[in-house]
Write a structure and sequence with these properties.
139 residues, 7 helices, mainly alpha
Length: 139
């Protein structure tokens, strides 16, 4: 059990550093933006905001989960609801991949990866829709 906790601590530390980097990057881009309203409505700013908010909401939900886990069985329904919300937040965190594709402009290997993903976008959309329907059907 201590090995799992140690691995979780390492993963959480890496996630904290990534979120700190994205938050700093978002604040600096907003500060130096010529048109802050246009920037706030941009796709990348909205994705970054979702990633940052999902991290902090996850932290709050972890604390709430630990609190409810200590309670009686009457609170188990709330516990499972929180677990479902946390699963949805994990899906939002996948938007971090947008940064990888944003960096593709600067590296030939990333550029090749981006072009391969772009060429197979229809197949990926079908796979994601299938996964989405499976999650909805079995949730």
């Amino acid at each position: 059990s201590s090995g799992i906790n140690a691995e979780y601590g390492i993963i959480m530390s890496i996630e904290t550093l990534c979120t700190l980097w994205i938050t700093t990057f978002l604040i600096l881009r907003f500060y130096w933006s010529e048109d802050r309203t246009k920037f706030a409505k941009s796709f990348m700013a909205i994705m970054d905001s979702f990633v940052v908010m999902s991290y902090f909401i996850t932290l709050v939900l972890f604390e709430l989960e630990a609190y409810l886990h200590e309670k009686t069985d009457s609170d188990q329904n709330r516990f499972f609801t929180i677990y479902r919300v946390m699963a949805c937040l994990r899906m939002i965190k996948l938007f971090r991949m947008v940064h990888v594709f944003n960096l593709a402009r600067y590296n030939a290997l990333f550029f090749s990866l981006g072009m391969a993903v772009k060429d197979s976008m229809r197949d990926l959309a079908v796979i994601f829709m299938f996964i989405f329907f499976c999650i909805v059907a079995y949730a």
